[in-house]
Amino acid sequence: MYPSSVTQEIAQTAARMVVEEGLEWGPAKRRAVKQLGLPARTSLPDNEAVEAAVREYIEVFCAETQPQELRALRELALMWMERLQEFRPHLSGAVWRGTATRMSDIYIGLFCDDSKSAEIALINHNVQYDVTEVVGFNGEVVDALSISSLCQPLGETIGVHLMVYDYDDLRGALKADTQGRTQRGDTQALRQLLQMEDAQ
């Protein structure tokens, strides 16, 4: 068993990769272990430790730019959520939690009565998308509809991933984490976040 300082070092190294390269937390943790020359079976920090390290990294290295980048991504997410309102969209990941930078993708859960209805809606809007299978928040495999969407304030194309869940999964989606924070928010909750930012 490694001392907590090693776990912390993994978290900090992973955090840098998350912020600078837009890596997801799982791959970032595994790459950090490799980069630090640790055995593959080294125990990894939990996601909360990585998130704390990400927030710290942003505060030290990205305090000037990150708030504007986060704002631009949240506004882009809101646009897609409003377009897909009939599928009860919920934003999750770094854009919801406030740790996103211009390297981050947007993750939106759609809760559909019919899993194909979201695809049909995209086709009707002439939106090009790729379908992949990913592990959902319940540990089950779900379809992700991935779109490349121009974020004008950033002058960059951002990946928007729409995870298609059953309508019945919505209840489980609203569970808080161990610190009582919500894992995702609906359109109204996102609007409130943006209004709170305006008021600051």
Short description:
The protein has 200 residues and is α+β, with helices and mostly antiparallel strands.
Keywords:
six-stranded mixed β-sheet; 200 residues; alpha+beta; single chain; globular; 46% helix
Task: Write a structural description.
There is one protein chain. The chain is α+β, with helices and mostly antiparallel strands and 200 residues long. Helices cover 46% and strands 20% of the residues. A six-stranded mixed sheet has the order 3-4-5-2-1-6. Strand 3 (130-135) and strand 4 (141-151) form a beta hairpin. Helix 1 (4-21) packs across helix 2, helix 1 packs across helix 3 and helix 4 (66-83) runs antiparallel to helix 8. The longest helix is centred in the N-terminal third of the chain and has 18 residues, at 4-21. The radius of gyration is 17 Å and the shape is globular.
Give the secondary structure arrangement, pairings included:
Elements: H1 4-21, H2 25-35, H3 47-61, H4 66-83, E1 90-92, H5 93-97, E2 106-112, H6 117-124, E3 130-135, E4 141-151, E5 156-166, H7 170-173, E6 184-186, H8 187-199
Parallel strand pairs: 2-5
Antiparallel strand pairs: 1-2, 1-6, 3-4, 4-5
